[in-house]
Amino acid sequence: MDLKSNHSSPVLTDPIPISKSRLGIHSNMFSYPQSGGSLSSGKYKMTPRKKPAKFDDVRSNGWLDAMKSSSPPRKKLIKGFNIEFSADDIDNAYNSWMIKYPSALKSFEQISKRAKNKKIVVFLDYDGTLSPIVDDPDQAFMSDDMRSAVSNVAKCFPTAIISGRSRDKVYDLVGLTELFYAGSHGMDIIGPVNHTESDVHPNSIRSNDQQGKEVSLFNPAREFIPMIDEVFKTLVENTKDISGAKVENHKFCASVHYRNVEEKNWPTIAQCVHDILKDYPRLRLTHGRKVLEIRPVIEWNKGKAVEFVLESLGLSETDDVLPIYIGDDKTDEDAFKVLREGDRGCGILVSSVPKESNAIFSVRDPSEVKIFLDTLVEMEEA
Ligand SMILES: O=P(O)(O)OC[C@H]1O[C@H](O[C@H]2O[C@H](CO)[C@@H](O)[C@H](O)[C@H]2O)[C@H](O)[C@@H](O)[C@@H]1O
């Protein structure tokens, strides 16, 4: 199958028969072997490097604006003047924003009332939620205190880490067993077998983890592995002269970081990614925190991953569950949306600046995430 063409693949083009699955999983998604064997997307493609004179594409498609808004400056241009906001202005703006997204810490009693007689399931994003945002993605470590907070939570409630990173990478960073791990924005989910019996979720397969323990595995974008690898190599080659650019291969998706690229070169990196993606209509771009994320055009995201984990736990069809999802990024909005719809659970946005969200509550930073997790455990143990 040619993954660059628009035929017979798990893409968004066909309507998804609801009867096929409550999760909206397209039947074609599972027409390939779930383990082993992958389809090559063709010859290694090397888009000729060129320095575009203009950046019309990335200006008109909104990429540049999205890149700028992923890192809002602490000052704003008003009628051509650079106006610095004072600390008071910033605090006032944040405090007004918190009326709409109240602190999950201050609202804890409300959350605990909602959790009464319900099974809590905890979903945690990694970067910016469990670990602070740092310049080098390879140095984004969570603290030992945070690790022990997550470990304690996982002893009390089913817990899943849902990250844009590859599953292996996020597992190495978190280092705790007995959790669900959903890497590549949910396109690579592994969970303990005792929670995910195959008769509960038919689309999972049994596999072994790094320690040889039997686990349940779900890969809705397996066919895209060769294509992502190919695009990753092209991205590395074509961005190698852009100082500060960094490309990561997450197996089912790839990331192009511009956090350490001078802002004047953002159009260059955006145009470079845009030119490569023109050859891959079955891939799309989403924006994260100073990162361009390249992923397959399949109907799968962190929200679907939340639904998948709940279904795997046998908790998707009951009101006796309270899913809590904590995340900081645009890609977490898919999960917040799923929980907001039908008032199914609590989304908690990690942000120290005002931003629109589908979350219900907020915390400022990972240190407040840790306090929230500790408080959940105290509530359970009381
Ligand atoms: O879903 P997440 O777990 O939040 O992963 C999203 C991206 O996280 C990482 O990048 C972000 O964190 C880096 C380390 O703090 C930071 O340098 C970068 O600017 C952020 O975008 C990860 O490296 C990406 O691949 C993930 O897509």
TrEMBL record:
Which is one Pfam family of this protein?
Answer: Trehalose_PPase
Q: Which UniProt keywords are listed?
A: Hydrolase, Stress response
User: Which of the seven top EC classes does this enzyme belong to?
Assistant: hydrolase
User: From what superkingdom does this record's organism come?
Assistant: Eukaryota
Gene3D superfamilies recorded: HAD superfamily/HAD-like, Trehalose-6-phosphate phosphatase related protein, domain 2
Q: In the record, what terms sit under GO molecular function?
A: trehalose-phosphatase activity
Q: So what EC number does this one have?
A: 3.1.3.12
- Enzymatic reactions: alpha,alpha-trehalose 6-phosphate + H2O = alpha,alpha-trehalose + phosphate
What biological process terms from GO does the record include?
Answer: trehalose biosynthetic process
Task: Name the needed cofactors.
Answer: a divalent metal cation
User: What pathway is this protein said to act in by its record?
Assistant: Glycan biosynthesis; trehalose biosynthesis
Q: What does this protein do?
A: Removes the phosphate from trehalose 6-phosphate to produce free trehalose. Trehalose accumulation in plant may improve abiotic stress tolerance.
Its family remark reads: Belongs to the trehalose phosphatase family.
The name this protein goes by in its record: Trehalose 6-phosphate phosphatase
Q: Which organism is it from?
A: Hibiscus trionum (Flower of an hour)
